[in-house]
Amino acid sequence: QSVLTQPPSVSGAPGQRVTISCTGSSSNIGSSYDVHWYQQLPGTAPKLLIYANNNRPSGVPDRFSGAKSATSASLAITGLQAEDEADYYCQSYDSSLSGSVFGTGTKVTVL
Amino acid sequence: EVQLLESGGGLVQPGGSLRLSCSASGFSFSSYAMTWVRQPPGKGLEWVSGISTSGDYTYYADSVKGRFTISRDNSKNTLSLQMNSLRAEDTALYYCARYYSSSWYSGMDVWGQGTTVTVSS
Asked: Does B95 reach chain A within 8 Å, measured CB to CB?
């Protein structure tokens, strides 16, 4: 049972903006632990998309952005493209569990 | 090229054991905390275990605590996961991943391709 909750799916037309929420609690996001986001294309390993709440690794388009507030975080994708169709996961650290935790995952569909 | 390559997966009976290995190359292995993450078929990612740079500190998900042991050999650039008392619910694709710093509060910036573990009679 994941401690970080994401919507199972979001969808949008090409060019639109979509956001994915990641809801945690006082023992993880609310304790100021960083939130990281991953993109997993079908049949491939996850790829770090956003680190430390709102930072993009080299090579990640600026269409992807992250934000964090209180006990939640969000990932926004602007100018949605067909290649963005994938599963997305948030991740943080949980002090009660003394370990890393992943979100439940969100499937993004480009209509 | 920075790379992680897992091996050791396979089919094992319930109650059996398996040892996974992850060979690292292209970076200073001893400078990074490392972790194992698994993904059951058709499901999401589940963090399994992590280890500090020196190997002195290890931590585990409750679901594997007492059954799995993570270790590393910095002289051989290798991460390992010894899995005992395996259950059907341990069936998954197991990924080796690097935390992007020495801290396990950080994200995971390098991933292997995964090795499949199937627990079934």
From this structure: yes
Interface test with B, best of A33, A68, A100 (most B CBs within 10 A): A100
DSSP sequence for chain A? --SBB--SEEEE-TT--EEEEEE--TTTGGGT---EEEEE-TTS--EEEEBTTTBPPTT--TTEEEEEETTEEEEEE-S--GGG-EEEEEEEEETTTTEEEEB--EEEEE-
B104 touches chain A (CB under 8 A): yes
Phi, psi (degrees; rounded to nearest 5) at A11: -145, 160
Between residues 41 and 80 of chain B, which touch chain A (CB distance below 8 Å)?
44-47, 50, 59-62
**Which residues neighbour A48 within 8 Å (Cβ) at sequence distance 6 or greater?**
A36, A37, A38, A57, B100, B107, B108, B109
Note down pLDDT in tens along chain B; length 121 residues.
Answer: 999 999 999 999 999 999 999 999 999 999 999 999 999 999 999 999 999 999 999 999 999 999 999 999 999 999 999 999 999 999 999 999 999 988 889 999 999 999 999 999 9
